[in-house]
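User: I'm new to structure prediction. If I give you an amino acid sequence, what do you actually give back? Let's try with this one:
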Amino acid sequence: MPPIFSDHMVLQQGVTLPVWGSASPGEHVSVLVGNLSAETVADSSGKWRITLRPLPSSPEPLVMVINGKNRIALHDVILGDVWICAGEANMACPLSDAPQGRDSDEKIADEKLRFFQYDNNSNLNETKTEAKTEAKVAPTKGHWVVCSPNTVSSFSAVGYFFARDLRSSHHLPIGMIQCTRHDSPIVSWISQRGLAKSPSILPSADPKEGISAPSSCFESLVHPLIPYAMTGVIWYQGESDEGGAALQYRRILPRMIRDWRERWGEGPFPFYVVSQSGFGDEEGRAVEGYHTQDGRIARALPWLREGAASVLTLPFTGIAQASDLGAAEERIPPDKLDVGRRLALLARHRVYGEEIIDSGPIYRGIKVDSNKVRVEFDSVGGGLVLGGSPSKTGEFSPALITSLKGFALAGNDHKWFPAQGSIEGNRVILWSDAVPHPVAVRYGWKGFPNGTLYNKEGLPAAPFRSDSDQPE
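Assistant: Good question. You get back a string of structure tokens that encode the predicted 3D arrangement of the chain. For your 472 residues, that looks like this:
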């Protein structure tokens, strides 16, 4: 059996359940779980697959029994919703490394919250072949664990906080599957078939080798899970696509989502993406260019965030903003609690039907009136307000935020200057003495944004630009 089938696993409720494995060619295989059973015969290559009807809810754990020439019994199996948390270092960051998890991880025991990890997940980014062309053998072992003080600390902090919010709001069993690898560009997460359908995708400016080669993460981490029934995916990746690869992120990420959905064959399952957290110079210019002043390509985080937002062209997708949750000098910022919470808001509203606001203000359009610009927003919730990052609530009082920051204006000369502004109802009015005839607006267009526009629900406005200029 693949490693995803083990003791303590969570089976997706309410859907048909694929079960698969390997046997001798022609071997008769049967699967029994609860009061459902099915059987098949392994094909000429030894592969077999059975699809069980949806299981009725059960208050007690089940046993899954697979019989062939041998017998495999999987114990303590429960029904619930299964989510995949995938990405690189920011998603991989364990709960023990998150300040909000260091105290709570000693108190948590929840039999209805379970995690799956590959056994050698933490070492995946350290193994390379001498030829540097292929990933070494993919992780072949993994296991499910029940959430307890002894098991939770090593799991993804973002994945844990996401699941904890779902558990507290809906009390249904949750299973989280972690697929993470440090230093993995997005091309490593697409199947070879998906890459073949996207000939316009180019290698990054700093092409990766070994375990970060194209399709390597897909083959070693994602492919072994297909077609395990699940609810959806939360995604936090992009650190390895800064700079020269940032501009094509808008093409690759949607292609990757289509690729995964095609391979699973479940239809357009929910896919929620974290927009990159802030990192870099807290001061600097009002708008960061794609190139630095000496001509080098910058980290290009604003374009990477814009690329992440391109997923909204696909159905059943969403963006959790994290640009205000960064730390200027930390590529892996410590605040994973608020990232998990914002992802959970998307799921609670769009999957579980809660009547809540799941997004901060989103740019709709502008209207220029003489020397001022009026900016219209959607998703204003209870209204537009001045606000600050929840990561910094211990450093200052929100009452100390007295001005609108993060906006910049430009005229026909394409030179950007900081803008002054005011909130008027659900609009923002901007002006700048340096730009007497403004034509374009940008907000949060920096590696480390300093924007102060939020809605009353405490969610930040998404970075945006009204112009369509592209870097040379």
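You can read the tokens as a compact description of the fold. Here is one thing that stands out. The mean pLDDT is 90.
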